[in-house]
Amino acid sequence: xxxxxxxxxxxxxxxxxxxxxxxxxxxxxxxxxxxxxxxxxxxxxxxxxxxxxxxxxxxxxxxxxxxxxxxxxxxxxxxxxxxxxxxxxxxxxxxxxxxxxxxxxxxxxxxxxxxxxxxxxxxxxxxxxxxxxxxxxxxxxxxxxxxxxxxxxxxxxxxxxxxxxxxxxxxxxxxxxxxxxxxxxxxxxxx
Length: 191
Description:
Layout: H1 3-12, H2 15-26, H3 30-45, H4 49-63, H5 77-84, E1 90-101, E2 105-115, E3 119-126, H6 128-135, H7 146-162, E4 166-167
Parallel strand pairs: 1-4
Antiparallel strand pairs: 1-2, 2-3
Helix pairs in contact: 2-3, 2-4, 3-4, 5-7, 6-7
């Protein structure tokens, strides 16, 4: 859908609907805004996900710095250790997992894996902007994905600080189906 068609579609919406979509945009809830545009426009105007993303993207450009962005997770070892200290149970490992969505593309979740109770506790989410901030403007990643590199550095530093293993099955390739960390078993060490 070209810019002119998007503008015309937007302008024909009732004011209340435009305000609802803009409300999601101003809260940085892109997925909710895109879903609403698709729900409103798919049957009537054949506005699918791709066009909805462009329409919502136009609204993001319109509001610019007025959008209340979700703050970046801290990746320094002290902040991560503080968050990890709130986990119930004994921390067995720090794990990094790839994930992704239509808003952020690929990102990595850093988790503390505990025993008694056996749970995983979210410590940080490493988005592209988080990785850029953490690695610095001159953070040369070579062929590596900056998100993977930042998650690996932060996660391994935290694991070393806590004296536990760090597991990142796929630091160089975004793979949300990579093998998960397994505790030490009688058949061999954890992986």
